[in-house]
Each structure stands twice: as structure tokens, then as C-alpha cells.
């Protein structure tokens, strides 16, 4: 196998900046935001649904609304796997170590500063958030998505009933809410049992909601496990729904892919390895896994060799972004290019003619990089003008 070529051993951003705390006001570390990041944040705040008066048990100051970041709520019964999902996806915890996680007793609020800022709230399974003592606006205001985790290895009837109660209460005040159901821990189930469980859960939820008069509820289902890539894939889909310019990004990636002969392309958030956009060809888990693993390789190599060596002399102008490709034993080529502080583009190329045209690939990826920053900054400018 040819050795991977790395144009510039400089670390692509390898660290999420987390502000983890359990109080309502989140402490954000000082970070320098890119205009793309700022524009997304701004846009997302602009799209936060308005809150009807019934939902508020107290008044919400305009400052609070302005400071709100899109929020992902992780809910479900006790021991369903919520904290494990948050730890594995956002804190790089090895799945086996989740065995030692203690039960959550207070809402865990995690501020994620990446290509866009958002929060992940991990709810204790036993919390009765629908009781009148809880302020629905505090919990569901500025909501990006409600992720409901069901333990598929356990009896799930209680979980389904509680989810339906939550949906029926919350949708009265926040009708546009995204409800994402993770049918979780499926690693322990046979293929057949997995499919049956999936169908049964979907059927129960939709039947009960229809019986309660809520037809076509916006509920999406995913089979997940922390022991494979499925939870990353599911989180990718959840996060993508929060990205206002997703279709533009997909069009750009499609155009890039067509021009360069890419079989599949993913735009990854480097640290979480959630992909925020991809081309619109069918999902290919094997490709996704390969690309995701390749990021680890490059990050590791970059971390090992990118430190400032006093005796190292630059040989001419250096390109700003990390770039690398590798050709595997089956002649598949993986190409990676860092786009900005948080994002990198990883493509799979199988067409032998396309592999020869590396100059073209580089040039097109750079054009894509400009367009990517343009997409974000343009919406930022528009938002600026309208305020
Ligand atoms: N087999 C399997 N076990 C999992 C998976 N995800 C989580 N677990 C295990 O499930 C147990 C409970 O996980 P937690 O993440 O603590 O569950 P939780 O929903 O946060 O629990 P509370 O904090 O009590 O609400 C742990 O022992 C995890 O290792 C999975 O995908 N597969």
C-alpha cells in the first residue's frame, strides 16, 4: 500500500471547546469564531420558533432569547444510554468506558463550540419535566431537536408511552419541533429482531399519536449503537436538520463530486466526526466508516509531527490547509482536505481516470472551499443587513 502523502503536517483542529456545566447560565470559553460559524449561529437564532404565551410560566427576556443556542435535548428512560451517546460522540469516550458512567442526577448542559455553536442537554431519566413546576420554555425554547433514546434491549412500552406524552404536550406550543427517536443498543439484537423491534416501535408511536388526534407527527427513527458508527450517522442526520444552507451545501458537493469523479464525499466536523453534509448519492456506511477512520489517521499524524521544530526550515510557501490522500489495496483512493478550523472534506474515488487528475481535484476542492465560506458568509451579510 503506498504511503499516504501529507502535504503539510499541521494539526487540523483536534479539539472541541467544551463548556460543560450543570447550571442554567453556560460558561463559554473565549473562542475566536469564524464568520462562517458566526453566520450559522446567527441564522439559527433567527430561525428559533416563536413561543406562544401559553408555554411561558415566566417572562423570557429578550437577552435570553438572543443568547440562546440551538439545543439538542437527550431524553428517555433511565439507563437507556443518553449519557453514553453524548460522551462517545462529543467527548470521544471509548464505548467500553460508558459501562462505568453513573446515573445522571441533574440536567447536564454541554456547550459545544464547533462549526456552529449548540448545546447538548442530557436529562436524567427520572426527571418529571412535564410537571407544572418546570418551565417548558426553559427546556424546549430554542430547541433544535428532541432526541428520545429508547433501550431496544429492554421493555420499551413505558418509554414509548412517555415519549408520546411528551410529544403531545410539547407540540401544542412548539409545533415545528424535530423529534428524533434513537432505537438504541441494537448491537445486542439479531438482524431479524432488530427489524421487528424497529417496526413495532414505529407502529406504536404513530398509532398512539394518531389516536390522540396527531396525524403525521414529525418523528424520525434511527437504529443506533455506541459500538459502531450508527450513532454518528444518526447524529449527523439530526445536526444536518439544523443547518439552514444544507441544500446549497449538498448541491456544491454534488457539483464537486461530478467534476472530480468522486464516488462519495462527506463534509466532516473533525472532532465529533459527524458529517454536516454529503453528496446526495445513497448512504454508504462502509465509505463513511473509511472516511471517518482516515480523519483519525491524519489527526494522529498531524499531532505527532506538527509541533514547531526550531531547526525546521520551511521549503517555500506552505499551503494553509492539511491535505492528504491514500490509495488502498483495492485501488480505492481516499482524499482529505481541511476546509477551515472545524471542517474537512473527505472523498472516496474509485474511478481510475479520476485518480490520475490530482491537480484538478486540488483545484476543485479549493474552489469548493471558497464557495463553502461564501455560503456561510453571504447569509451572515444578509442577516446583518436585515437587522
Ligand atoms: N450494549 C449497549 N450498551 C449501551 C449502549 N449505549 C449505552 N449502553 C450502556 O447502557 C448503560 C446506561 O448508559 P447511560 O448512558 O448511563 O444511560 P442514561 O440514559 O444516561 O442513564 P441515566 O443517567 O440514569 O438517565 C451503560 O452501562 C452503557 O454502557 C449501546 O449502544 N449498546
Sheet with most strands: strand arrangement:
2-4-5-3-6-7-8
**What series of H and E elements makes up the topology?**
EEHHEHEEHEHEHEHHEEHEEEHH
- As for the CATH topology of the largest domain, it is Rossmann fold
Count of individual domains: 2
- Structural class designation: alpha/beta
Strand content: 15-25%
Task: Give a description of the structure.
The chain has 387 residues and is of the alpha/beta class. Helices cover 40% and strands 19% of the residues. The protein contains eleven helices and 13 strands. The strands form two sheets. It has a seven-stranded mixed beta sheet. The structure holds guanosine-5'-triphosphate.
Please provide a brief summary of the model.
By secondary structure, the chain is an alpha/beta fold. The protein has eleven helices and 13 strands. It has two domains: 5-10 and 245-307 and 318-386, Beta-Lactamase, CATH 3.30.450; 33-240, P-loop containing nucleotide triphosphate hydrolases (Rossmann fold), CATH 3.40.50.
Descriptive keywords:
6-stranded antiparallel β-sheet; 387 residues; GTP-binding protein; disordered N terminus; Beta-Lactamase; 2 domains; alpha/beta
Topology:
Layout: E1 5-6, E2 17-21, H1 35-47, H2 62-67, E3 71-76, H3 82-91, E4 108-113, E5 117-122, H4 136-140, E6 143-151, H5 157-173, E7 179-184, H6 191-211, E8 219-223, H7 230-240, H8 246-260, E9 264-269, E10 275-278, H9 285-305, E11 323-327, E12 333-338, E13 343-349, H10 352-356, H11 358-386
Parallel strand pairs: 3-5, 3-6, 6-7, 7-8
Antiparallel strand pairs: 1-11, 2-4, 4-5, 9-10, 9-13, 11-12, 12-13
Bound molecules: guanosine-5'-triphosphate (GTP).
Guanosine-5'-triphosphate binds next to helix 3.
Subunit structure: Component of the GSE complex.
Subcellular location: Endomembrane system
Organism: Penicillium alfredii
Amino acid at each position: 500500500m503506498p504511503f499516504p502523502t501529507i502535504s503539510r503536517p499541521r494539526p487540523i483542529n483536534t479539539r472541541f471547546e467544551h463548556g460543560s456545566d450543570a447550571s442554567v447560565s453556560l460558561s463559554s470559553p473565549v473562542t475566536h469564531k469564524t464568520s462562517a460559524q458566526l453566520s450559522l449561529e446567527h441564522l439559527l437564532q433567527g430561525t428559533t420558533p416563536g413561543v406562544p404565551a401559553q408555554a411561558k410560566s415566566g417572562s423570557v427576556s429578550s437577552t435570553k432569547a438572543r443568547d440562546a443556542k440551538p439545543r439538542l435535548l437527550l431524553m428517555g428512560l433511565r439507563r437507556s444510554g443518553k449519557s453514553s451517546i453524548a460522551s462517545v460522540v462529543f467527548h470521544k469516550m471509548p464505548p467500553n468506558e460508558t459501562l462505568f458512567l453513573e446515573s445522571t442526577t441533574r440536567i447536564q448542559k454541554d456547550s459545544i463550540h464547533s462549526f456552529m455553536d449548540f448545546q447538548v442537554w442530557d436529562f436524567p431519566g427520572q426527571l418529571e419535566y412535564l410537571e407544572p413546576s418546570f418551565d417548558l420554555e426553559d427546556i424546549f425554547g430554542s430547541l433544535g431537536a428532541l432526541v428520545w433514546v429508547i433501550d431496544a434491549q429492554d421493555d420499551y412500552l413505558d418509554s414509548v408511552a412517555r415519549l408520546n406524552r411528551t410529544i403531545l404536550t410539547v407540540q401544542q406550543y412548539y409545533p415545528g419541533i424535530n423529534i428524533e427517536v434513537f432505537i438504541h443498543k441494537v448491537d445486542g439484537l439479531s438482524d431479524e429482531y432488530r427489524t421487528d423491534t424497529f417496526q413495532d416501535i414505529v407502529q406504536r408511536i404513530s398509532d398512539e399519536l394518531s389516536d390522540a388526534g396527531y396525524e403525521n407527527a414529525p418523528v424520525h427513527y434511527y437504529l443506533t449503537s455506541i459500538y459502531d458508527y450508527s450513532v454518528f450517522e444518526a447524529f449527523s442526520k439530526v445536526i444536518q436538520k439544523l443547518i439552514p444552507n444544507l441544500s446549497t451545501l449538498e448541491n456544491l458537493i454534488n457539483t464537486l463530486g461530478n467534476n472530480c469523479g468522486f464516488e462519495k464525499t462527506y463534509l466532516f466536523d473533525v472532532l465529533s466526526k459527524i458529517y454536516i453534509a454529503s453528496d446526495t448519492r445513497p448512504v454508504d456506511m462502509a465509505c463513511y466508516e473509511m472516511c471517518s477512520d482516515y480523519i483519525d489517521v491524519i489527526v494522529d499524524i498531524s499531532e505527532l509531527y506538527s509541533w514547531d521544530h526550531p531547526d525546521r526550515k520551511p521549503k517555500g510557501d506552505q499551503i494553509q490547509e492539511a491535505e492528504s490522500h491514500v490509495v488502498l489495496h483495492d485501488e480505492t483512493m481516499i482524499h482529505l482536505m481541511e476546509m477551515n478550523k472545524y471542517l474537512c472534506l473527505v472523498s472516496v474515488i474509485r474511478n481510475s481516470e479520476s485518480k490520475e487528475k490530482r491537480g484538478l481535484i486540488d483545484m476543485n476542492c479549493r474552489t469548493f472551499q471558497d464557495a463553502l465560506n461564501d455560503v456561510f458568509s453571504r447569509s451572515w451579510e444578509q442577516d446583518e443587513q436585515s437587522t
